[in-house]
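Action item from last meeting closed. Structure (274 res):
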């Protein structure tokens, strides 16, 4: 990254701090999660997290395909508007296209039959963030109003909680906790949830797989994000805490801090205009 570009980006307020991490955990032999953070010439940033599922490493294929396909669509056909309706529409069209390609690939390759993946993606501008998701990977925001989950898990236990059949506490240890009602690539078409919220200076956004959210509480995530430490150190602490609490699943996260970088050499800085 050239310094003169960084200085100009400072002046335009187009810099966000970003970090991504993925970890196999302490039990799984393979990591079927994938994560990516991308910028483009429209002045926007895209963060994506995917948690694959399927036997014989097919989950790894599904999540990797998802990241690669959405990056390609982002690079070649990203929305050039800063209108939330347009960014949400782009998500709907892009993810449907990705779903069709993964579904087709799975049906053409017997070893990948039935594979799928969760998806949570955030398109960040200097004014707002649009989020799309399928499955139980989550997006949280930390701002002046507190810490809250922006996505709603597409899982069996979440539906049981919402209908009042079980409590949130019961859901934590439910034997069918990992049963998803919606995933990317398992059906010819998919319903995608989208939401847009304000994204102001000082706000944090975190995208993660259930390997983190099942092992680290909302309170703990908020406390770590609020620490006066480098973004990379916060990410590492979250991964370590999930492992300390069992680490039975792969653990993946992406954090975006809508904040000016302290210095040109800050490795977590991302140019929204590159």
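Sequence:
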């Amino acid at each position: 990254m050239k310094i003169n570009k960084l200085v100009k980006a400072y002046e335009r307020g187009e810099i966000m701090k970003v970090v991504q991490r993925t970890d196999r955990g302490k039990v799984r032999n393979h990591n079927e999660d994938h994560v990516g953070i991308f910028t483009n010439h429209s002045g926007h940033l895209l963060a994506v997290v995917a948690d694959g599922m399927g036997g014989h490493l097919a989950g790894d294929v599904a999540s990797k395909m998802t990241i690669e396909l959405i990056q390609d669509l982002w690079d070649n056909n990203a929305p050039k508007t800063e209108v939330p309706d347009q960014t949400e529409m782009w998500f709907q069209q892009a993810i449907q296209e990705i779903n069709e390609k993964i579904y087709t690939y799975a049906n053409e390759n017997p070893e990948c039959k039935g594979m799928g993946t969760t998806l949570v993606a955030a398109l960040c501008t200097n004014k707002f963030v649009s989020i799309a998701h399928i499955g139980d990977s989550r997006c949280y925001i930390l701002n002046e109003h507190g810490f809250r989950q922006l996505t709603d898990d597409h899982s069996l236990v979440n539906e049981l909680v919402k209908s009042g059949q079980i409590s949130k506490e019961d859901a934590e240890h439910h034997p069918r906790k990992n049963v998803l009602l919606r995933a990317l690539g398992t059906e010819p078409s998919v319903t995608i949830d989208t939401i847009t919220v304000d994204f102001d200076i000082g706000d944090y956004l975190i995208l993660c797989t259930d390997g983190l959210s099942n092992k680290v509480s909302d309170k703990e995530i908020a406390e770590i994000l609020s620490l006066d430490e480098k973004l990379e150190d916060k990410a590492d602490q979250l991964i370590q805490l999930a492992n300390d609490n069992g680490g039975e699943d792969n653990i993946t996260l992406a954090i975006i801090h809508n904040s000016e970088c302290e210095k040109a050499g800050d490795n977590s800085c991302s140019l929204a205009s590159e």
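Note appended to the action item: Residues 3-271 form a domain with the Phosphatase 2c; domain 1 fold (CATH 3.60.40.10).
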